[in-house]
Design a protein that fits this description.
The complex is a heterodimer of chains A (599) and B (374).
Chain A lengths: L5 E9 L4 H14 L4 E6 L8 E9 L10 E6 L5 H6 L1 E10 L14 E5 L1 H8 L3 H20 L3 H12 L3 H21 L17 E5 H12 L3 E4 L6 H14 L11 E4 L3 H14 L3 E5 L1 H6 L1 H9 L4 E7 L16 H5 L10 E2 L4 H18 L2 E7 H5 L1 E5 L17 H6 L29 E3 L13 H21 L4 E3 L6 E6 L3 H13 L4 E6 L1 E2 L3 H8 L3 E6 L5 H10 L6 E5 L8 H10 L7
Parallel strand pairs in A: 1-4, 4-5, 5-6, 8-9, 8-10, 10-11, 11-13, 12-13, 17-18, 17-20, 20-21
Antiparallel strand pairs in A: 1-3, 2-3, 7-14, 12-19, 16-18
Chain B lengths: L37 H16 L6 E5 L3 H4 L9 E4 L5 H11 L4 E7 H5 L3 H10 L3 E7 L2 E2 L5 E2 L22 H7 L4 E6 L3 H13 L3 E7 L15 H7 E10 L37 E5 L5 E6 L9 H13 L3 E8 L6 H5 L11 H4 L2 H8 L5
Parallel strand pairs in B: 1-2, 1-3, 3-4, 4-8, 7-8, 9-12
Antiparallel strand pairs in B: 5-6, 7-12, 9-11, 10-11
Helix pairs in contact in B: 1-7, 3-5, 6-9
Classes of the chains: A alpha/beta (599), B alpha/beta (374).
Chain lengths: 599, 374
């Protein structure tokens, strides 16, 4: 049931009209009231004039996946009236701009229709088209505050923080929020049956997007070289990294910078810069999305074959081709796992939320150095660009970067001959040297056939020795990457296997299914290569579902290929329309399926 | 790429440079290119130039892409790290290496196929970025390693061995470089060590990307009647615009430069020509100050030529081109060049040498930052 601190609403506006900041204000106000909240910005690939929505879900129990039901729609974009009104649950609410008579498209018998004349109020109170348009967003925020019970003191203090240095804007915003609030109180029954009541469930949390968190991870891990080419939805990662570097890495006296960020001419160059810097000994990374991953394939093969540490953040979006660039998906699992021509395999970390994006960014740099190979961090648009409520990020000052096997000039003095690719420890990782260090460490990196001394070869045995070492290294990687998260229940015979940003929806589904008397265990895979534990989980359940966001069941395929798990023992639940996963999709698939029969 | 180790026979009386190293120390493996390949002469010029400059071998990074030219990094500076990367992508890998460690002397070797077709974008943007590196383009108008297809620098009317005639216009890397803001542009001929060695030395000392286009005929696929990049054609049509001899200020190293490119071995700089020619006086000579403190002395065959004037350089080169001539020499240098590191304002300590304490803001800063997200 939707009621106090358990509801969702959706605001439909036109992009480029300033609604984003109003929506952020709404969400942050709820967060400050101590109530778990999440927001999904569903925006078009466009700068101005196309429909955009913002969904806010409030849930006292902390179920913060995308809501399956919309309790109230705020319809402010005539172009999407029909769609917006159709999405409201039966007996739900519609809030519209009653400056004009109710449009036919908004009429629906089984909902309550609420009107506030936002447009007219703005015309009366403000001058100029721009001001009226922008402040209409704040006026509807005020009306919503009255309808759902947002503490006006909280809103006021957020406005003060935001516009403190711009008194004129501050006054206009205060005025607008009050106009909306007062109008709603005067015209409507406030608050609604579903509403907010203050809690204390957010004090150890923050609202942060995954790209910002990943950028912080890169900063804290000591990354010094960032190379990139702008692409939605990964752009904000490097923008955040740039901002943090300017805040923390500029010498106050000299203005000298302890970082180099290069906006490349394309993703190929971004990969090349990353690999060049990684080879030279810097912690280097690039951030991109699907099309960029396609362009980086050749370089990924070089870095794999020549053992070069590098980190690749892939903020996944809907493919193929340009696809739907502002919609979320997990469509690159296979293209990352086996990126490039020839026999190649790459470790991938799959963060489930911005908190893990921070942690895994740090892990990725350590793994890249330890394994001397490209490491993917596979985030997605939903994690990367939306604000999520996660635990406050913390840092352990005892952390020291694990740079892996790097020989110093002194180390080199002690050995007779340096052989770049000789596997002394049996883990597939050979010690490297860095240019500029001196001694006997010079060697020749090449993407062509090379032997353990890094010399050119076309000899079958030497070639096989090298690629077999790389296979050994990949097996070793499975012992270093994070283990899956497993949530079991006594007596469960069904296993739900999932990955990345599906986490919250699947966990919520576990709880909802339990209410229906269906017990399921959950395993969220955090990394590739998979550990044996992954196979054991699937084998130990009578029925397993693999839940992921792509059409072809790429995770399921990878589990089949890499672990030899029979196809029929994993039932796919695939959600690939571009929206963040809801628990309902999982519940309906699991509860609705005849027992034991693959869907 | 393929190379055969060269036996090291050090003659006890071999001359040494400022570091006490002999020319042999700057050589690499045995070349596996065709006998007589122009690229081998370029290699010899690089050996000579780096030895004369006293480049510390372990600080040099030899970068290349794919192709015959890209193989040559194996034939010099055997004590240096080398990176034979991906076809056409040497510039980006070099950008990353140079960004990470500004203490490296980045020597990029490429060819006309590697740079002007598959790598045209990367070349252009590395120039725009003004990466701290020398970029030698060994230009022969043909794809050698795949056995003789036209490259993008092949002139209209050039004939392949099999008789096919090129009808597409060529890309001139020198004009291209000038048009995208290059701060150092030189051109020479592989067979002209006298001119090439000083240009390479000046290029290595330049602050930013120094492009050196070297016409380097392919003896196997593009050195015959009808080819505009044959030895004969180039010798007949080479117009030298500017000669360069380079004299580092900090640690003078004797060069004779203009006569035969070899050192006179006394370890001191001479301030004129050691080839017996009289100094031409101020009219012919421009001393260009480089950012590392060194100077390039430019001598123009035409006293009116100003190598610091981009428009003038463009006019001169295209003028030569229209007459079927190849302008060589140090064609353009921007005395106020701001390299990639200048623009990025990177710390003088190479990024790879910064400690974690320099890079990580720590737990207290993170705790403080969290208030932004509440």
């Amino acid at each position: 049931m939707n009621g106090v601190n358990d509801f969702a609403f959706k605001i439909g506006t036109v992009n480029g009209t300033g609604s984003a900041s109003a929506n952020g204000l709404l969400m942050r106000s709820i967060f400050r009231m101590g109530i778990p909240v999440t927001g999904k910005n569903l925006f078009p690939s466009n700068i101005q004039g196309l429909p955009t929505w913002y969904e806010i879900r409030v849930n006292a129990d902390g179920h913060l996946a995308r809501a399956a039901e919309i309790d109230m729609a705020v319809a402010l974009n005539p172009a999407t009236y029909a769609k917006d009104v159709a999405e409201i649950r039966p007996d739900g609410y519609l809030l519209y701009d009653s400056s004009w008579p109710l449009p036919q498209a908004l009429n629906r018998e089984d909902i309550t229709i609420l009107g506030v004349p936002f447009g007219r109020l703005c015309v009366e109170a403000f001058t100029g088209d721009r001001e009226r348009t922008l402040l209409r967003n704040i006026v509807y925020t005020g009306a919503l505050a009255a309808l759902i019970g947002i503490d006006m003191e909280v809103i006021d203090s957020l406005l003060n923080e935001t516009f403190g240095k711009k008194p004129k804007l501050l006054d206009a915003n205060h005025k607008a929020i009050r106009i909306g609030y007062d109008a709603a109180v005067e015209l409507l029954d406030c608050p609604l049956p579903f509403r907010l009541e203050p809690m204390d469930a957010t004090s150890d949390s923050i609202l942060i997007d995954g790209n910002t968190a990943a950028a912080l991870g890169a900063l804290y891990a000591g990354a010094t070289v960032g190379a990139w080419y702008p692409i939605t939805p990964s752009t904000s990662l490097m923008e955040a990294f740039t901002a943090f570097c300017h805040k923390y890495r500029v010498d106050e006296e000299t203005g000298e910078r302890k970082f180099a960020i290069l906006q490349a001419e394309d993703e190929l160059a971004a990969a090349g810069i990353t690999i060049g810097a990684g080879w030279a000994g810097a912690r280097a990374f690039t951030n991109t999305s699907g099309p960029g991953i396609s362009l980086m394939q050749e370089f990924l093969g070089l870095a794999y074959y020549a053992d070069i540490p590098s980190v690749f953040f892939n903020i996944q979006r809907c493919g193929p081709s340009t696809g739907m660039p502002t919609r979320t998906q997990q469509p690159d699992i296979l293209s990352m796992a086996y990126a490039s021509h020839g026999d190649t395999k790459h470790p991938i970390l799959f963060p489930a939320d911005p908190g893990e994006a921070f942690e895994m960014a740090v892990q990725a740099f350590d793994l890249a150095d330890q394994l001397q190979t490209p490491i993917f961090v596979a985030s997605d648009l939903d994690i990367g660009m939306n604000d999520w409520m996660v635990k406050r990020l913390t840092w352990d000052d005892s952390y020291t970067p694990n740079r892996g096997k790097v020989l110093t000039a002194e180390d080199l003095e002690k050995i007779e001959r340096f052989s770049r690719y000789r596997d002394v420890d049996g883990d597939g990782v050979a010690a490297r040297t860095l240019p500029g260090v001196g001694g006997k460490g010079a060697y020749f990196v090449r993407g062509s056939g090379h032997d353990q001394h890094a010399d050119y070869t076309e000899d079958s045995a030497a070639y096989c020795e090298l690629v077999d070492r790389l296979r050994r290294k990949f097996s070793h990687a499975a012992t270093l990457v994070p283990e899956p998260l497993v949530l079991t229940q006594e007596g469960a015979e069904i296993g739900l296997v999932t990955i990345g940003g599906c986490d919250l929806a699947v966990r919520e589904a576990q709880a909802l299914l339990r209410e229906q008397g269906i017990l399921v265990d959950v395993m969220r895979i955090k990394a590739f290569p998979f550990q044996e534990e992954v196979k054991e989980f699937i084998e130990s359940h009578e029925t397993s579902y693999v839940i992921e966001q792509n059409r072809d069941g790429q995770l399921r395929s990878l589990l089949m290929i890499e672990l030899g798990i029979p196809k029929d023992s994993m039932i796919p639940i695939l959600d690939y329309g571009g929206m963040p996963l809801t628990a309902r999709v999982v519940v309906e698939a699991v509860a609705g399926a005849p027992a034991g029969v693959p869907a | 790429m393929t190379s055969i180790a060269k036996p090291v026979v050090a003659h006890p009386r071999l001359k040494t440079n400022a570091l006490g190293l002999t020319l042999r120390d700057y050589e690499g493996g045995m070349s596996t290119l065709c006998a007589g390949c122009g690229h081998d002469s370029v290699t010899a010029a690089i050996v000579q130039a780096t030895w004369e400059l006293g480049i510390e071998p372990h600080r040099a990074a030899k970068m290349s892409g794919i192709g015959c030219s890209s193989k040559t990094t194996a034939y010099f500076l055997k004590q240096s790290h080398g990176f034979n990367s991906v076809h056409g992508r040497m510039p980006s890998v070099s950008s990353g290496a140079a960004a990470a460690n500004r203490g490296l002397s980045v020597i990029g070797i490429s060819g006309d196929g590697d740079s002007l077709s598959i790598g045209l974008g990367q070349l252009s943007h590395a120039i725009r970025r003004n990466v701290n590196m020398i970029y030698i383009l060994e230009n022969n108008g043909v794809y050698g390693l795949t056995k003789g297809q036209f490259s993008a620098s092949a002139d209209i009317g050039s004939k392949l061995k099999k008789g096919e005639v090129n009808e597409q216009p060529p890309i001139d890397p020198v004009l291209l470089a000038l048009s995208v803001g290059a701060t150092f542009v030189g051109r020479s001929f592989s067979g002209d060590k006298r001119q090439l060695v000083p240009i390479i030395k000046a290029a290595i000392s330049h602050r930013g990307l120094a492009l050196v286009d070297v016409i380097s005929p392919c003896v196997t696929f593009n050195n015959h009647e009808g080819s505009t990049k044959s030895y004969k054609y180039t010798r007949d049509h080479d117009v030298e615009a500017v000669e360069a001899d380079y004299i580092p200020v900090c640690e003078p190293i004797e060069i004779t430069g203009l006569s035969n490119g070899s050192s006179n071995g006394n370890g001191h700089a001479t301030n004129g020509h050691a080839d017996g020619r009289p100094a031409n006086g101020d009219g012919d000579l421009r001393v260009v100050q480089l950012h590392d403190g060194g100077t390039v002395r430019l001598r123009s065959t035409d006293p009116s030529y100003d190598p610091t004037d981009r428009a003038n350089a463009y006019q001169h080169i295209s003028g030569c081109q229209s007459r079927g001539e190849i302008a060589t020499g140090l064609l353009f240098v921007d005395e106020s060049s701001r390299s990639m590191h200048d623009v990025l304002k990177t710390t003088s300590t190479p990024l790879v040498d910064l400690g974690h304490e320099d890079l990580c803001p720590g737990s207290a800063a993170l705790e403080k930052l969290m208030s932004r997200f509440c």
